Amino acid sequence: MVLRPTTAPPQPSASFMPYDSSSSPR
Questions:
Q1: Phi-psi group of 7: left, alpha or beta (phi > 0 → left; psi -120 to 50 → alpha; rest → beta)
Q2: Which residues have CB under 8 Å from 3's CB, separation 6+?
Q3: How far apart are CA 22 and CA 24, in angstroms?
Q4: Is the pLDDT of residue 2 over 60?
Q5: pLDDT of residue 26
Q6: Distance CA 11, CA 4 (A)
Q7: Reported pTM
Q8: What is the C-alpha separation between 12 and 24, in angstroms, rounded?
Q9: Rounded distance, CA 10 to CA 7, Å?
Q10: pLDDT value at position 11?
Q11: What is d(CA 23, CA 5) in angstroms, rounded to the nearest whole number?
């Protein structure tokens, strides 16, 4: 199922990943 990758899912997903990774190692 490929629902337009330029919607909202790809934006919040990439923003949450870097945030958690930067907050974990500090």
A1: beta
A2: 9
A3: 6
A4: yes
A5: 46
A6: 12
A7: 0.12
A8: 18
A9: 7
A10: 56
A11: 26
Q: What is the rounded distance in angstroms from the CA atom of residue 20 to the CA atom of residue 26?
A: 10
Amino acid at 26: R
- For residue 24, the tally of other CB atoms under 10 A from its CB is 7
Total residue count of the chain as it appears in this document:
26
Band (pLDDT 50/70/90 cuts) for residue 6 is: low
Rounded Cα gap, residues 26 and 10, in angstroms: 24
Q: What is the pLDDT of residue 8?
A: 54
Question: Dihedral angle at the C-alpha atoms of 18, 20, 24, 26, nearest 10 degrees?
Answer: 50
